[in-house]
Amino acid sequence: MLIPILGLIEAGGWRNLMAQITARAGADYTHLWATTGSFAANPMGVHWTGIVFGLGWVISFGYWTTDFLVVQRVLSANSLRSARLAPIIGSAFKMFVPFFVILPGLLALVLLKDPSGHLIQLYPDGSDMVLHHGAHSFNQVLPLMMVRYLGPGLLGLGITALIAGFMSGMAGNVSAFSTVWTYDIYGAYINRKASDSHYVLMGRWSTLIGMAVSVGTAYLVMSSASIMDYVQELFSFFIAPLFGTVILGMLWKRATKAGGFWGLLSGTVASVAMWEMVRLNKANIRFMILQPHASADTILRVQAMAANLYRAAWAWLICVAVTVVVSYCTKPTPEAQLTGLVYGSTIIPHDGSRNIFEKPIFWAIVVATVLFILNLWLW
After folding, report:
1. Which residues contact 174 (CB under 8 A, 6 or more apart)?
2. Helix (H) or strand (E) holding 262
3. 243, 65 in Cβ contact below 8 A?
4. Distance from first CA to last CA of the chain, Å, rounded?
5. Residue 213 to residue 137: CA distance in whole angstroms
6. Which 8-state DSSP code applies to residue 114?
7. Does the pTM exceed 0.85?
8. Average pLDDT, stretch 160-183?
9. How far apart (Å, rounded) are the C-alpha atoms in residues 330 and 243?
């Protein structure tokens, strides 16, 4: 939190920072949505449709509703009202993340200097300048800013906080993996009559295996431009179609088991196939972004992150379409068996809110309004 504050003070405030960034890197870096009207104008090579539908609708909603690490925390709430407020409170804090993550990168454009006093030129990871000439990459901005502003004590504290945050996320994911495997798969389908001590032992072994798998997948990240590209790539494979299956299963009485299975499978396979198609020939991305006549320059500008967003949107659409078709071709589940599973067949109890300020919907509207204002301000 100190880095954005101290950086803004050194840059002379927000207006001076925007003016300096515009003078050095161009006005594109100072706008959130203004350059997303075309693939060629946006520095990331993404159209607003990819951000709104791929990231905003599919990946974001999928993360908040199907990621077990998030869901298990909501399920641990002691009341319905607390469970509803948990993601709303989380979304409020989430809006501050850009100020801690993106703002240091913008400050680095105008504040980071080399020993000779010249502004540092940043390069992509894996580029020749980074590998062979000792230049700094974009991913090194936060550590460089920490070294610039934090003394030895605060620097150690900051690095400890970063490591602690990473370890917390890893521990939560491994715990979620162990829980899902032990209770939802092994205990439900493979060995239903085992003792509690057996399940505890299975949970311990799955935790060790999960840690080994996570270490192994770290080497896969090396082939991506950043860990965020890698994460969104995985989300487009699994989270996007899973969200289609979950949302239909929760809200549509006619959805069937066969429809959910084949929809999820087809969405995942289609996403992996699209990824392989673009990997073999990047020009194939023109079909994913619905630009069959896109120029070679436009195709080159569409980066991995943009491809992830559109692949997620297509995977969700394919999953939903297949689920609907297969569900209509198979026998529906009797409505009496849907109680507690489908929204329209379940009586929702009162959450205990006594006045407007205790209602989750009120705070959801407040958060949505602030989000709209921030987007309008940073347009």
Report:
1. 207, 210, 211, 214
2. helix 257-280
3. yes
4. 23
5. 28
6. -
7. no
8. 81
9. 21
Helix axes 68-75, 80-94, angle to 10 degrees: 140
How many C-alpha atoms does 275 have within 13 Å on its Cβ side?
22
Poorest-pLDDT segment among 51-60, 88-97, 118-127: 118-127
The four Cα atoms 33, 35, 37, 38 give a dihedral, to 10 degrees, of -140
Q: Is 54 exposed, middle or buried, given 0-12, 13-18 or 19+ CB atoms closer than 10 A?
A: buried
Q: Helix or strand or coil: residue 135?
A: coil
Highest mean pLDDT out of 74-88, 103-117, 167-181, 290-304: 74-88
Tell me how far apart the alpha carbons of residues 303 and 289 are, in angstroms, rounded to a whole number. Answer: 12
Contacts with 206 (C-beta within 8 Å, 6 or more apart), sequence order: 177, 178, 181, 182, 186
Residue with tokens 């917390």: 168
DSSP helix/strand/coil, 122? strand
User: In angstroms, how far apart are the furthest CA atoms of the chain?
Assistant: 75
Which residues contact residue 152 at a Cβ distance below 8 angstroms, ignoring those fewer than 6 apart? none
Sign of CA dihedral 18, 23, 25, 27: positive
Eight-state DSSP code of residue 347? P
